[in-house]
């Protein structure tokens, strides 16, 4: 088949939809159009796209590349476009591939030549990188707020239960008694580190790619620092090739999101376990649970289960982004268009999950009696008895041995260490005296661990108050 010569087109948007169509002799098939288009999902970046365009246009006017009249027209046009988008009246078209070309085309429709000048000194490559950075920055700020709510809720419940005792586990075997408040504050620490990670990631997100243009920079006398300041960036990306190509900042964000979900998932696992009637430590508010269509007695902890499940998809997005990036030569490649859906979904997932969980934590009904009963089974104070013997001058290994024998005797008698008579205890070690009972109780055990990071109620109260004060501003 003879090739047709391309029709020269004066106006890039005149009669063919694609912005780059003058170069081509045949249109893409509908399937290829759908395959290559991103407007279905990147229209989420519309606000950031307009924000970036306005900053770029303001700079172009300031350095004299476009006139002030053009800039004023662009401002006006963009204001109408934003209105149309907000009102759901904007006609997104797959023919125009992505959010950038859709908005630019509409701008030209509204304001004519001034709209066609907007893309001077710019490429969709630095444009999209800027949009995503602005978007991720907003998500980070919101996630930081939500992590604050989450920690506030955990610390609030911890303060209430600073002295509530439950068994602490290792290997899911009863280990030593801990306070429920202490257990909750462990999660407040995890989410605190998650917040630190996001805040750190924000520093690298918050650099301006615009000015890199397609890959090599631009011949126009642009002022990148001015655009950076307008958009609230801390600085500019220092290499144009890097600016348009790397998505490491998005990967970092997804890594931080994956860690948040990992922590959420661990907490969820515990909530599910604690709510099992076999354990019965807590009850979740009905609004986070569902019933069974066949078993009338069921109240299922759906929200924590789903959160545990959704953790997998966020890990998946992290892996997808890492894989997306690994084989790409410099600079921009269309592969990068695949960065968005996973990134959006990771951000949506942590946003919804953290929002729901802050509320869910506040609605936990605690059953201290069930926790206490569980702590009384399993010889949780055995280490305290060993420590007691050490304080009486017995070497730790000998003390450990004596207590192990006492535990075996208790198993035979089906009783707790504190139920043994003094003579019985003394048969395991003569150094044991009447004062031992003060150490065998659950209260004595937790109160004795009053150092920084320990489980003693006074310590938990202090830590909870510290976190409450730290997170109060965000409430
Ligand atoms: N939709 C594209 C993306 O998301 C925008 C950049 C397109 N650049 C290009 N040279 N085709 O990555």
Automatic annotation (TrEMBL):
Pathway given in the UniProt record: Amino-acid biosynthesis; L-arginine biosynthesis; L-arginine from L-ornithine and carbamoyl phosphate: step 3/3
Domain of life, per lineage: Bacteria
Lineage per the UniProt record: Bacteria, Pseudomonadati, Pseudomonadota, Betaproteobacteria, Burkholderiales
UniProt-listed Pfam families: ASL_C2, Lyase_1
Domain Fumarate lyase N-terminal: 23-316
Organism: Candidimonas humi
Keywords: Amino-acid biosynthesis, Arginine biosynthesis, Cytoplasm, Lyase
All residue ranges annotated as the Argininosuccinate lyase C-terminal domain in the record: 379-447
Family affiliation: Belongs to the lyase 1 family. Argininosuccinate lyase subfamily.
Protein's name according to its UniProt entry: Argininosuccinate lyase
Gene this protein is translated from: argH
EC number: 4.3.2.1
Subcellular location field: Cytoplasm
Reaction catalysed by this enzyme: 2-(N(omega)-L-arginino)succinate = fumarate + L-arginine
UniProt main location, coarse: cytoplasm
GO terms for MF: argininosuccinate lyase activity
């Amino acid at each position: 088949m003879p090739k047709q010569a391309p029709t020269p087109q004066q106006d890039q948007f005149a009669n063919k939809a694609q912005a780059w169509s003058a170069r081509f002799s045949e249109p893409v098939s509908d399937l290829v159009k759908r395959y290559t288009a991103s407007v279905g999902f990147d229209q989420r970046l519309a606000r950031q796209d307009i924000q970036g365009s306005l900053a770029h246009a303001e700079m172009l006017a300031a350095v004299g590349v476009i006139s002030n009249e053009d800039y004023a027209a662009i401002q006006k046009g963009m204001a109408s476009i934003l209105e149309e988008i907000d009102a759901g009246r904007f006609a997104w078209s797959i023919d125009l591939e992505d959010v950038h070309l859709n908005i630019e085309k509409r701008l030209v429709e509204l304001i004519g030549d001034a709209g066609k000048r907007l893309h001077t000194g710019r490429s969709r490559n630095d444009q999209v990188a800027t949009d995503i950075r602005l978007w991720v920055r907003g998500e980070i700020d919101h996630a930081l707020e939500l992590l604050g709510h989450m920690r506030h809720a955990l610390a609030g419940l911890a303060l209430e239960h600073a002295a509530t005792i439950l068994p602490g586990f290792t290997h899911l075997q009863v280990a030593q008694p801990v306070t429920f408040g202490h257990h909750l504050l462990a999660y407040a620490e995890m989410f605190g580190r998650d917040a630190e990670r996001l805040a750190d990631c924000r520093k690298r997100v918050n650099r301006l790619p615009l000015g890199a243009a397609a890959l090599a920079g631009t011949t126009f006398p642009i002022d990148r620092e001015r655009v950076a300041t307008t958009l609230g960036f801390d600085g500019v990306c220092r290499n144009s090739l890097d600016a348009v190509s790397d998505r490491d900042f998005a990967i970092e964000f997804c890594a931080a999101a994956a860690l948040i979900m990992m922590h959420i998932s661990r907490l969820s696992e515990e909530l599910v376990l604690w709510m099992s009637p076999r354990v019965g430590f807590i009850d979740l508010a009905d609004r986070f649970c569902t019933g069974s269509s066949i078993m009338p007695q069921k109240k299922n902890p759906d929200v924590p289960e789903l959160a545990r499940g959704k953790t997998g998809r966020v890990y998946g997005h992290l892996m997808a982004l890492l894989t997306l990036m690994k084989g790409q030569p410099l600079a921009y490649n269309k592969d990068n268009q695949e960065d968005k859906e996973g990134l959006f979904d990771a951000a949506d997932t942590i946003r919804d999950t953290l929002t729901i969980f802050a509320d869910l934590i506040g609605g936990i009904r605690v059953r201290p009696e069930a926790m206490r009963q569980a702590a009384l089974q399993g010889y949780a104070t055995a280490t305290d008895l060993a420590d007691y013997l050490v304080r009486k001058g017995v070497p730790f290994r000998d003390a450990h041995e004596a207590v192990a024998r006492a535990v075996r005797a208790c198993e035979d008698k089906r009783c707790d260490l504190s139920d043994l008579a003094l003579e019985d205890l003394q048969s395991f070690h003569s150094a044991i005296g009447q004062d031992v009972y003060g150490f065998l109780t659950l209260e004595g055990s937790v109160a004795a661990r009053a150092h920084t990071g320990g489980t003693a109620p006074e310590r938990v109260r202090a830590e909870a108050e510290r976190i409450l004060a730290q997170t109060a501003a965000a409430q």
